[in-house]
Design goal:
By secondary structure, the protein is an alpha/beta fold. It has one domain: 3-Layer(aba) Sandwich (Rossmann fold), CATH 3.40.50.2020. About 20% of the residues lie in helices and about 35% in strands. Helix 1 crosses helix 2.
C-alpha cells in the first residue's frame, strides 16, 4: 500500500473541521449521526474535538459488496432518538458518488430534521451519481483522486478500516 495521508495530517485536519462545525452550531443542540461501519473511526476522532451540545448516534448503511457499489442504499436500524425537530450532522468517511449521503440526508429531512449537514473525511474527485448530482458536503477533510483508498474507516471487504492513515490499495493488499 502507498500512504497518501499520514496520521498527523489527518488529525490536524479533523481538529480544524471540528472548530468549523462548532462555529456553525454555536448555541444549538444537534445530533451527530455516524454512518456505519465506515464512519466509526472518523466520527470518534471528530467528536473528541467538538465542544458543542450534541447527541451522538449512528445508523448502519451499506451500498457496497466487495469492492463495487450495488447502486442501492440499505439502512439497517433507526436512530436511538428521533431526528424530528433537530439539526443533524451526517458523518461519513468518504464521499464517493454521493448516493449514500444524499439518500440518507433526504431520509432524515423527510423524518422532520430541521436541517441536515454533512462532514466527510475524504471526497473523491469523480462524477457524482445522477441521483445526487447537486449534492455538496458542508465539510470535507481532503479531496483525493478517484483511487481505491483504505484506512480511517475505508475498507476492502471489511479489512484495513483500522489503519490510522489513508493509503492507496495496491493489488498485493487484496490477498
Amino acid at each position: 500500500m502507498k500512504v497518501l495521508l499520514t496520521t498527523e495530517e489527518i488529525q490536524a485536519r479533523i481538529e480544524e473541521m471540528a472548530q468549523q462545525i462548532d462555529a456553525c452550531y454555536a448555541g444549538q443542540p444537534y445530533t451527530v449521526m455516524a454512518l456505519l461501519n465506515g464512519a466509526c473511526y472518523f466520527a470518534v476522532d471528530l467528536t473528541r474535538h467538538l465542544k458543542g451540545d450534541f447527541l451522538f448516534d449512528s445508523v448502519l448503511v451499506s451500498s457496497y459488496v466487495d469492492d463495487h457499489t450495488t447502486g442501492k442504499i440499505t439502512m439497517r436500524g433507526t436512530p436511538k432518538k428521533p431526528v424530528a425537530g433537530r439539526h443533524v450532522l451526517l458523518v461519513d468517511e468518504v464521499l464517493d458518488t454521493a448516493l449514500t449521503l444524499s439518500s440518507i440526508k433526504r431520509h432524515f429531512e423527510e423524518q422532520g430534521a430541521v436541517d441536515v449537514k454533512t462532514a466527510v473525511l475524504v471526497q473523491k474527485e469523480r462524477p457524482l451519481h445522477p441521483l445526487a448530482k447537486n449534492f455538496t458536503a458542508e465539510w470535507v477533510g481532503f479531496k483525493m483522486p478517484d483511487r481505491f483508498l483504505i484506512g480511517c474507516g475505508m475498507d476492502y471487504n471489511e479489512r484495513y478500516r483500522q489503519l490510522p492513515y489513508i493509503a492507496e490499495m495496491e493489488e498485493a493488499d487484496r490477498k
